[in-house]
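TA notes. Do not distribute before section.
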Amino acid sequence: MKKIIVPVDFSKHSEYALEAASILAKKYDSEVLALHMLELSNALISDSDGNRQAEAVFFLKLAEQKFTDFLDKPYLKDVKVTPIVKHFKVFSEVNDVAKEHNADLIVMGSHGSSGIKEVFIGSNTEKVVRHSDIPVLVVKYNPILMDFENVVLACDFSKEAIKPYINANALFSKLGATLHLVYVNLPGSGFKSSTEMEVRVADFLKIADGHTDHMENVHYVSDYSIEAGILNFASTKGADLIAVATHGRKGLAHFFEGSISEDIANHSTLPVMTFKI
């Protein structure tokens, strides 16, 4: 975890994300790339009128000054912070910045609001999550601890879940965290018996890990919704973080039958980390 991107919109939630990133940066000797997305219309930028160009320069300078003030935080002391101001129109470009800088993680607040609505884009967590090829950590509150000792990964043990599981397992192994895989059994035609699940999990782990040594960290819970099952299990386990798989541009993993990742991010008080399928 050498480089961490934090999209900044000057809201309290992006400040939470910045502080969370600073804790991780100090722990893992990482660099924080603070990214501010400035939206200026193409007409304003390309207009040959001198007054319009001056207006564009004014807004750019205003953003840079506000950004400098925003990054003047005591918790950023001894953290390498690189401010980046970009002219963006779509949130997918956050992923472009991540690729350009070979970043390992994006940290965002979940209900960011824009500063000056006409000029500054607010952090749209869902859209960034959908376009990101790297994990996105979503924090909701002022971070106290970023010690991820117990992590719950929602998994349906399908072929599509292999890649996010491998990536999550690799990351959390490096962080020294215990990864608990949880499958939520719902009532109805999709319900599976314990025997059916054990066979499915064994096949999954043989492909993903080459062995079944992690069977002891696999859990099956029954509930009336995927979201409720994950949140209830995370609470029972005393989890520090919930991890979920995302499905890119098509929305979030279809095996959750809807936008369960957004639902979890909205309702969980825990940090949530997403991994691309």
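Switch to the second chain here.
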Amino acid sequence: MKKLFIAFSLLALSVGQVAAQTDSIPTEAPEVPAPAPAWKFSGVSGLNLAQTSLTNWAAGGENSVAWNLYLNASANYKKGDWSWDNALITDFGKTFTTSNKWLKSVDKLNFSTKIGRNISKHWSISALGDFLTQFARGYDSDTNPNIPGNKDKYISTLLAPGYLTLAIGADYKPNEDFSLLLSPITGKMTFVLDNRLSAAGAFGVKPGKKTLAEVGALAVANYKRKLAENINLVTKLTLFTPYNEDFGNIDVNWDMMIAFKINKFLTTTLTTNLVYDDDIKTVDAAGNQRGAKVQFREVLGLGLAYSF
């Protein structure tokens, strides 16, 4: 009986030691979700093509070929209370007809950057820089640069005009798709760095001058949305009014692009651009200066595209 008691005591002691060792083994830590990446990249780029061929066409017309290459991209950073949004919009294209040969049809280069620090859930104090110009010379509809003597009759070119906007203000951003910057302190610089256009006083600069500086108020709205599984919308609206005798005359620049993805390789894009600049006056047929007019451009194309 004594031996049996000793055996049970040794067994109990062994079980206790094993239990103690088991309790000392660290348990597996719960899984922690990976932090969201600080940088987010998105955009769409592609090449649109169009072609018209006429043979013995009684109604008249010309054979034509058109193309445009575009890129609409964004790179946005978010970490803690700080954010940094960058956007690049480029578009360039030409059209060929048997009479006019190659002529520029679309031309745009726009880069913007905005850095901000949150002061509440949806509001931040932000600083904006925006640069807008074009790549190549542009001509009016009545001037064919391929005709001898017309090549130097261009009405715009690289950095003529060019626009640089610097602003500080409050930025409202309720989600990743929409933002609205309101700036009461904005500097807008218009560049006309071409000697001939500068001498003519083009784009609001005084004849012979190459820059026009204005201080005013600015509002910039950016919106992007996936409307459907294969439809993406990107739009940007910029409104500016100077603090001078023209206060209340609002300069408008509104860009919009809708991309309809047909399949893995083909996409239809609709691009529009509406511009109203109070500094760009018009001239009637008699040569009399008139007020500014609304400018509008629309391009519908089918071609190869890549979204990211």
